[in-house]
Amino acid sequence: MSSTIKGISQSEVSYDGSALRVAIVHARWNKTVIEALVAGAVAKLKERGVKESNIIIESVPGSFELPLACSKMISGSHVQAGSNVTDLLGGLNFGGAASSRASTPAPAGTVPMPSQPFDAIIAIGVLIKGETMHFEYICDSVSHALMKVQLDTGVPVIFGVLTALNDEQALSRAGLGTGANKGHNHGEDWGLAAVEMGSHLRRWV
Ligand code: DLZ
């Protein structure tokens, strides 16, 4: 029996992601936790049928950069991945689950080909409180800005930003805690939320 009433109830509908195109934008701060969260999100996207070639992963330095990156990726998603975005990272390990990284800039003069816009975008960051007010300012501005991006663009932005008071909280929310605090990988929930919201959006427009 569960010891808490918290948490999402599973949808009665098993949403089909096979026609969806989903972007993941992740920050690079707190790499161990980020890797687990991105891997969890990718695993659930694939489980729901999203094609590997339709999962575009991009990175930015820190969580503060997530809103602009989401905004630009959404507005640029009418051009093919690889033609207008550059992978800022490379090198993170998503346990073999990594999908298309937009890593190859198009040759100069190439006319971008139209492609399917994103049905949803998952913004993943891990903010861990330090000694100053930095944490509060970034948590507040990033959450408001990500909400603004989704309302302004009409594309679901899944809020994958952990706002943890310490390392242990962050680790257990990625399923990386120890013993009874192992926790649950919230990245999996974000992958499912992206498929559900992307599917809704196709019905609602
Ligand atoms: C500067 C900073 C600090 C102190 N902590 C974090 C953090 O815990 N998580 C995170 O994603 N980013 C952090 N950053 C970086 C900022 O988000 C941002 O990248 C820089 O201030 C540059 O704009």
Automatic annotation (TrEMBL):
It is an enzyme of class 2 (transferase). CDD domains: Lumazine_synthase-I. The keyword Plastid does not apply. It catalyses: (2S)-2-hydroxy-3-oxobutyl phosphate + 5-amino-6-(D-ribitylamino)uracil = 6,7-dimethyl-8-(1-D-ribityl)lumazine + phosphate + 2 H2O + H(+). Gene3D superfamilies: Lumazine/riboflavin synthase. Pathway: Cofactor biosynthesis; riboflavin biosynthesis; riboflavin from 2-hydroxy-3-oxobutyl phosphate and 5-amino-6-(D-ribitylamino)uracil: step 1/2. One of its GO terms (molecular function) is 6,7-dimethyl-8-ribityllumazine synthase activity. It comes from the Eukaryota. Its EC number is 2.5.1.78. The keyword Transferase applies. GO terms for biological process: riboflavin biosynthetic process. GO terms for cellular component: mitochondrial intermembrane space; riboflavin synthase complex. Catalyzes the formation of 6,7-dimethyl-8-ribityllumazine by condensation of 5-amino-6-(D-ribitylamino)uracil with 3,4-dihydroxy-2-butanone 4-phosphate. This is the penultimate step in the biosynthesis of riboflavin. NCBIfam families: lumazine-synth (TIGR00114). Belongs to the DMRL synthase family. This is 6,7-dimethyl-8-ribityllumazine synthase. It comes from Crucibulum laeve.
